[in-house]
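User: Can you write out an input/output pair for a complex, sequences first and structure second?

Assistant: Here is one pair. Inputs:
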Amino acid sequence: MPVKEALVKKTLAKEALLVIDVQNDFCPNGSLAVPHGDAIVPVINQLIDRFETVILSQDWHPAGHSSFASSHAGKNPMELIDMPYGKQILWPDHCIQGSKGAEFHADLNSDRADLILRKGYHSSIDSYSAFQENDKQTLTGLTSYLKERGINKLYLTGLATDFCVYFSAIDAVARGFETLVILDACRGINLDGSLETALADMQTNHIKLIQSTDM
Ligand code: VGL
Ligand code: ZN
């Protein structure tokens, strides 16, 4: 790359590391355990050391949340239901506000986070994305936060690749952020091929899929 172009690129890119939902309930022994979810913690900690701006999201549901199968008589986890905003997968109870399961993994270095963004706190709407809830209308405020700070490039990590990381990445790119997903710093749930679908859809949407070892 010519020197001038390199300089322009450097001045224009203001980056942030976004760490999605690295919480006990998504790790082994958690109520919605993602296979090997805890394996990403050391990878993310190394990345945190390299970024000036670090933002963590935290899935944060009230007890009895509408995304829990236990809130719907006769329904089991992983079944689909119709919500006013569309189809919703029902999950085991997870990440209940103030519970041990909702805490970040004990080894995650959360000290350097500028922002801890909680989501999923409205009883009747789930929120996979860190930008907007599943009704695709209710905003979390993250877009404004990032734009006010002049951040235009996002590196996504965390859990789960095919749900909260995926929806956050799709919403990020739709809002004009240059969006990269660091695959070895993510793990997926993979429900009926959801991981493969999510990876393909991210590529279609010009989200770069990279490895931390290539950075
Ligand atoms: C998530 C399902 C339900 C996630 C959160 O963080 O990917 N998945 N709530
Ligand atoms: Zn959740």
